[in-house]
What we know:
Layout: H1 4-11, E1 17-20, H2 28-36, E2 43-51, E3 56-62, H3 69-76, E4 81-83, H4 86-93, E5 111-114, E6 123-129, E7 132-136, H5 138-145, E8 148-150
Parallel strand pairs: 2-6, 3-5, 5-8
Antiparallel strand pairs: 1-7, 2-3, 2-4, 6-7
Amino acid sequence: MKTPATERLDAEHVAYQTHQFQYVEGGGTKHSSQRLGVDEHQVVKTLVFEDEHQQPLLVLMHGDQRVSTKQLARQLGKKTVAACAPSVAQRHTGYLVGGTSPFGTKKALPVACERSITGLERLFINGGGRGFLVSMTPADLVRVLTPTLVDCAAE
């Protein structure tokens, strides 16, 4: 499956594997991890947030964890951050919610990544379509996205 995300990964010479499964509305990372037979902690969700000035940013978080917006805002030096409405997220990224990849977004967006993701052996992240993940090393993710590493997983 070719998407703007896989085109970006190819251009950056990232070694990745593709994984397709039946998408279920609202199934999230629990569904995808079960379909692929991997720990939900290895599945990284791509979330679209906005700061107090409506400036968008992507947040990468373990599938089994939630983002503490207070911790995230503090670590990024923002007053507030909040999740975007699906229509706003789609406008910022060019991807449908449920198929949002941090790679190949419509415009370049800052990326914040939960620090512990970099310690995974391999991660699974959306490849730019619903029911379509790619797996890669965290080192490749960091090399391509140059994210700000944060500690914002909610307790």
